[in-house]
Specification:
The protein is of the alpha+beta class. It has two domains: 344 residues, FAD/NAD(P)-binding domain, CATH 3.50.50.60; 122 residues. The chain is built from 15 helices and 21 strands. The strands form seven sheets. Strands 5-4-3-9-21 form a five-stranded parallel beta sheet, covered by helices on one side. Strands 10, 11, 14, 15 and 16 form a five-stranded antiparallel beta sheet that branches. A three-stranded antiparallel beta sheet has the order 6-7-8, with no helix packed on it. A hairpin with a 4-residue loop joins β12 and β13. The radius of gyration is 22 Å and the shape is globular.
Amino acid sequence: MRGFVLLFAILMLSGCVRPGGDEPEQTVMIDKPDVVIIGSEIEGAYLARSAKDEGLSVVILDPREKAGGQLLQGQMLYLDEPTDDANKTLLQGKVEHLFTEFKKGNIRKIEDFEAYYDTLLSGIPIESGIEIVAIETDQSGTDKQALKKLIYTNNAGEEKTVEAKYWVENTDFTYLSGQLSKDRIPGVETIFNADKKEYMASSLIMKFKGVDWDTFQKSVMGMDQASREEQFGSTTHVTNTFTWGFGNVGSRYTSSRDDIFLRGLNILNQKDGEALINALLIYDVDPSNPERVEEAVALGKAETDRILPHLQKELPGWEHAEINGYPDYLYIRDYDRYETDYVISATDMFSGTMFGDNVSIGGYALDIQGIKTDPWGRGLGKPDKYGMPLRSFILKDYSNVLVAGKNVGATAAAYGSARIQPNTSLAGEVIGIILGQIDGKKQLVDLTEDDMKELHAYIKKKYKIELKGENATNKLVNFTEDELALIDKGQLQIKK
């Protein structure tokens, strides 16, 4: 699909339906925007917002029928916060505001997140249900290609053409980058020593109402730690906002199929007796296969019905809980990712490496969710904090194609931490700012160390985002070369 001559370009005029609203917002789809984002995951939405705020024109073309991806359609509303070893938050930028409102209780229910998403993408046109027909590229220098034009069809079957300076892969099934690259980053099969390509489990988020959270919290936290962990599992804890642990509750449940598994319960208090649980794992889901996704959603809904009486029996305050509807889509953790100009490694993370082209300061444990043959997954240890370079968001061999969110260039082990939403949300925001600042004056791949210093200074002054990330703890002192190789393969856990 590369290198052919496009026959025509037409002006796109479309009504855009926002996920949180009933009436279409009429927005003009531009045929030559500065930035085209393929997919509507929240991490790329941050890139869209900051690029537009910096003066660029932005269009979102979404192959899914509804916008919002894992956040809105999958209703993965349990937000994980990255912190350093001193338990200091690593949140910065617009995503920090989301977490602030989340922790205050102002953003907890799906309607709250929809309103937030609407605000984030205000004035940015989205065309949903598109299908890529063809792509045109050309050489951009000696060793890089540039994506120039894309032909697609919309929901009505109309064929359209769009040109742009920059393109962003922002789907959960590499819809764009999978058509541009053949260099897949090896996946979690390398960690689990599997003999075929594997992905971390997906989840159907379970929703309940009629939960007495006050009784739940007081009953569980009123137990001494030894009794609490004997009953519910190690690290079990309940706050006013959420829970973690409860591995024993999962292990005492027998699922209906071998490709479904109930692990420990991450529960979000959505207030008013409503609660949401991220714990129901579904294996062998290929998000590029609509039939398998549809089947997995149906299986997850049926399994949620079976799990309800188990929770009523196991959890105090849940005796009168009821099902509170179901998401229509899955929380997809993992799929194919393709090589970027730099691929972040586990040793980068554990050593606290910072890069001159940092676009995010990340953190969080290297959490590898399981596969069918290893359902509990692996915990590989927690870094203090680490840098995420711009190069890890530039698709290898392309000068103007970026990746967002879960498409980040990271090894299978490093992906266990890099994939956490705030890490790549900050990166998306920063990349959007950078695109606005260079605005075609320089290629992304040609930015120098001095350029990045100037950009970092601008971002710090205007947006209060600090990207130097100094004084990260190196947890790899005294490890041998062989041990470092095992860490990068996900075969050796860091216990510091």
